[in-house]
Amino acid sequence: MNGCDRMSDSHQKVLQTRLSNGLEVRLKEIHTAPLISNWIWYRVGSRNERPGLTGISHWVEHMQFKGTEEFPEGVLDRMISRNGGIWNAFTHLDFTAFMEVMPADQIDLALRLEADRMANSLFKPEEVNSERTVIISERQGQENQPTFRLAEKVKAAAYQLHPYHHEVIGEMADLKRITRDNLYAHYRSYYVPSNAILALAGDFECQAMLDRIRELYEPLTSRPKMDFLAQIEPPQQRERRVTVNGPGETSYLEVAYHAPRGSDPDFMALTVLDSVLTGASGLRVMGGGLSNKTSRLYHALVEGEIAAAVSGSLSTTVDPYLYGIWVTVRPDQTPEKALDVLDGEISRLIDRPVAAEEVAKSIKQARALFAYGSESITNQAFWLGYSEMFADYSWFEEYLDRIAEISPEDVHAVAQKYLNPANRVVGIYQPVTEKAHV
What we know:
Elements: E1 14-18, E2 24-29, E3 35-42, H1 56-63, H2 75-82, E4 86-91, E5 96-103, H3 107-120, H4 125-143, H5 146-158, H6 172-177, H7 180-190, E6 196-202, H8 206-217, E7 240-246, E8 252-258, H9 267-277, H10 296-302, E9 307-314, E10 322-329, H11 335-351, H12 356-372, H13 377-390, H14 393-404, H15 408-418, E11 424-431
Parallel strand pairs: 2-6, 7-11
Antiparallel strand pairs: 1-2, 3-5, 3-6, 4-5, 8-10, 8-11, 9-10
Helix pairs in contact: 1-7, 9-12, 9-15, 10-11, 11-15, 12-14, 13-14
């Protein structure tokens, strides 16, 4: 759509258009503060990787901070901070995102920076080798965390074929052998206008901003969008279990159920089920949650003195992913006991519908957290692009209305459909105390 006359439900102007080279643009005027949040989203993440090259998307993200001829390394940070801005980036399962938040009168720096590194990142061999050390160190640091080690094994057990099998950071063996040419080929294949969305929200005039974006981005070379087909994961036929032994003093339990993709009609009802079971989630990659002290598993596990903490994780993804339940087990209890209590609560959900009052409360909590996590300028810009990674912007616009329509029968139906033992992986992290040498 060309022009700036499309109105969202909140009566803020939203533009949705595509440049001649395939770059999608999303613009939303918000004149509440003299700030602009700029995001560039690429449809590439660990989902787009094959064995031997796992972690390559995350590594390319790092290399995008190593400079171009126009913006050499070191200059970038100083220019952003000197002009009152902040910037960041992250790689996930389905995408890589780069963001800047700038004073409104300095946003051109962010636009020029992202246009330049879309086409002209250098990937100097010495920088590749230096960053290899950094990323291997990052991987080693994560391996020191029991929850990372457990999550990695659970995900590997859940996915036999689909590339969601691998952690975003990649396998250690691959990090040691990926070459500069591998990285550059990945960059030239995926970090292109036809595979990207540029999303801005903040204090600007829509048409003027679109004109400047055309000036900077339309000359960039257009290449066909990389057509990637992930292998389809067959339905799981029986429960799978993994046990991880390692250092520490705390046991952890992760129960991961195969769940629908973000655009699936069942997803909204599963969101409410998650709110009932573990507490409301904001669904953001970078988000948090409200207190879950009214949730069923908090009552059963934490107040029941079985666990120190419990939480749920439901992700909006391109392909079907996992609904995870995490339990931090108290030192005087066992993961097996925590699993027994958890299974009792799951059986309650499957055997009989949740009371209407409890569903209404859970919906209210989920809607409140979602609205709270969507109100800032940066979060508005985030959702402009993020929603397009797994669905489209209407998913975000319609979320509050659609979740309000979920009934107890809907919650009961998804509990019966997804929360069965054959559809899950149970993972236990068991600390092993090293014996002192005499």
